[in-house]
Specification:
Layout: E1 2-3, H1 6-22, E2 28-38, E3 41-52, E4 59-70, E5 75-88, E6 94-103, E7 113-120, E8 125-132, E9 135-142, E10 148-157, H2 162-166, E11 172-187, E12 190-205, E13 211-227, E14 230-240, E15 243-246, E16 249-252, E17 258-267, E18 270-280, E19 284-292, E20 298-310, H3 312-324, E21 331-343, E22 346-361, E23 366-378, E24 386-390, E25 392-395, E26 398-400, E27 403-410, E28 413-416, E29 420-424, E30 427-436, E31 444-456, H4 457-464, E32 472-483, E33 486-490, E34 492-497, E35 500-510, E36 518-529, H5 530-534, E37 545-556, E38 559-569, E39 573-576, H6 577-586, E40 590-592, H7 597-602, E41 605-618, E42 621-626, E43 628-630, E44 633-639, E45 646-649, E46 653-655, H8 656-666
Length: 675
Amino acid sequence: MLAVSTRTFFLVLVACALFAGAGGVRAEVSVGADSLALPGVEMTGMQADINSAPDGQGLKLTLSAERADIPAMGWRKLGIVLDGALDRDELGRWIFDGALRLKGAPGGALSNARLHMVADESANTLELSVTQDKASARVALPIDQTTHAQITLKGLPAGWLNGLLSTMWSGRTTTGRVDADLALDLLDNGVQAGGQFALDGAGFDSPGGKLAGQKLSGSGRLGIDSHAGSTSIDLDASLRGGEILLGPLYAALPAHAVQLSLGARSDKGVLSIPRLRLADPDALQLEGELAFNANGDLVQLQLDRFNARLPAAYDRYGKGWLRSLGIDGLVGSGEVSGHVALDASGPTAFALQTGGLDLSFAQGRLGVTGLHGAVDWSATGDRPATRLGWRALQVYRIPNGAAEGSWRSRGGSLALEKPLAIPVLDGQLRVQSLAWKPAAASGERLQTSLALTQIDMAALCRALGWPEFKGTIGGAVPSMRYVDDRVEMGGGLSLNVFDGFVDITRMTVAQPFGEAPVLTGNIALRQLDLALLTSVFDFGSITGRLNGALDELRLVAWKPVAFKASFVANDGGRISQKAVNNLTAVGGGGLAGGLQGTVLKIFKTFGYKRIGLTCALKGDVCSMGGLGNAKDGYTIVEGSGLPRLTVVGHQREVDWPTLVRRLQAATEGSGPVVR
C-alpha cells in the first residue's frame, strides 16, 4: 500500500499535469496504484489518466478507483469515477470541472454529479462544489488537513446521510431533504460535527419500527460527537408538522413551531436521552429524560415537570402512550400538570394536579366532569395525603353526583383514607374502601368494597334505556377486585327489587371498558312479585311470586351467548288472557285440555297452580323446557280451577334470534335493551 498525505497526492497529480503539458497537445500520462491511503480515506485499484485537452486549453483528467472506503462517513466499497478538465487560472490556482460518479453510495448519493474544485496551494485551501439534480454541497478544507471541513448543504436528499448515520445509529433516513452549514472533523475512530440545519419533509425508521418519523420540517442547531461505537448528540430545534414515534410515545406535530431540545447518547444500540425539553405553546410543555434498549423498547421515562392542555395535548402527544397503558379513545378538556416516572415494568411514581378537568373514554362508558385536586403516588415510598374530587361522574351512562375524597400512597398502593359517599339516582353509592396498585403489571390492581342504598329503579332504567321498573335498589358488594383487566366480584350482590331479591354471584367482567366486554356470573331470583314485574311490560298480567336462576351466564358485548335459565312460580295466582297468548307464542306451543278459543275469549283471567319455563342457550340455539313433559312437548302453565288452563310448548330447540323476536313481539318491543 502506498501511504501519502493528501497534499503529496495533490502535488503528484499537478506534477503529472505539468509533465503532460510539456509534451504538447498529444502528451499522455497514466498513473496507477494498487492501493492508496489518505487521512480518513482508503482506495484500491487507483488509475489516473491525464491528457491534453482537445482544444489545447488545459488538460483532461480521468481518475478512478475500484473501491473506496471512508469509515468515518460510513461509506464503504464505493466505486469512483472522476472525469473532467483540469486547468490553471490567472491566480495560479488549479481548477477542475467535470463529472463525479459514485457507485454504491447510500441513497444513490453522487451517482451522477457535477464537481467543481478549486485548489489554491498558496492559501492552503481546497474548495469543492458538488451538484446533482436539486442537491448541492460545498466543502472547504485545508489541503494539508482534509480531516477538517466546512460544509454547506442545499436540498440534500436525506437518504444520502445514511452512511454517516450508520456510524452512530442502527436506523436510517427515508424521505425528505436537508440544508445545513456544518463544521466536520474526521477523527481516527469517529467524527465530530456541529452547526445549523433545516429539514423539509424528512423521515426516518429503525429496525423493528419502534423509532420512526415522517414529514418532519423545521430548523435548528446540531452537535454530534461519535467515536468508538458511542455517539453523543445535542439538538436544539424548532419543528413544524410531521410525526414522530419513540417506542410507545407518538407525536403528531402541529403546523406552528414546537421547540425541542435534547441531549442523547447512543451506545451499541442503546439510546438514552438524559435531557429532553419540549414546548408546544397551546398543548404541552415538559422536561425530563428517556431511555430505550437495543430493541427500541422504552425502559425509562421520567418527566420531572409537565403541563398538558387537553384536548390538544392528548391529540398530539398522548394517544400512543395512553394506549400502551390500556386507555384509548380519550376525550378531554382542561389542564393538568405534575410529574411522571416509568421503567420497563410500568409506572414507578406520579403526582398530578388539576384545577378542572373533564375526561371521557371507552365511547363515553366512563367519564368525569370537573375533576379537581391532586394525587401523589410512589411505588416504593409513602407520600403525603391529597384530596381529589369531581363535580359529576358517569359509569356506563349512569350519572353520579359530586364527591371528594382523601387519598394517600402507602407501600405502592393508592388508597382512600375513609369511606366516600357518592350520590346516585336519588340514592347513594358508598365506597367503603378502595385501594389501587398502579404498578401491578398483572394480578390484583384494584380492590374495593361498595354499598348501594335507595337507588331509584325507574331512574336507573331510564339511564340504561330500559322500561321503567318501579321501586328502589339496595345491596352490597363486600369485595370487588380488578385483576388482569378483569373485574371480579367477591361474595355477592343482593338487590331488593319487585318486592323480592336478585342475588348476583361469581360475577366477572373482562375488558370492562373495551369494545366487547365479557361478563360471566350467576343470577338468582327470589320471591319477585309477578304483578309488579309484568306491569312494566305490555306482556299481560300475572300475579304470584317468581323464583328462578340464570346460571353460567355469559354475555359478550352485553349480548347473551350462553346461560342455563329456569323460572318457576310454584305458589299459584292469576294469569291474564294476553299473558297466556304470549307464553304460548314464546314456547311455540298451544292450548291443551280441550279449551276452546271461544272460552278463552269469555274469561279475562285464569287461575294457575304453577308456571315454569327453562331455556339453556348454547351458541345460537336455546333448548326449551317447562314444568315437565307433556304430550308432544312440555308444560308451561298448569291450570287451577275452572276453566282449567294448560299451556304446552312444542318446540324443544328454538333458534335464539327467533326467540328474541318472539319476546319482542310479545312485549311490543318494550323489553330492556342494554346499550
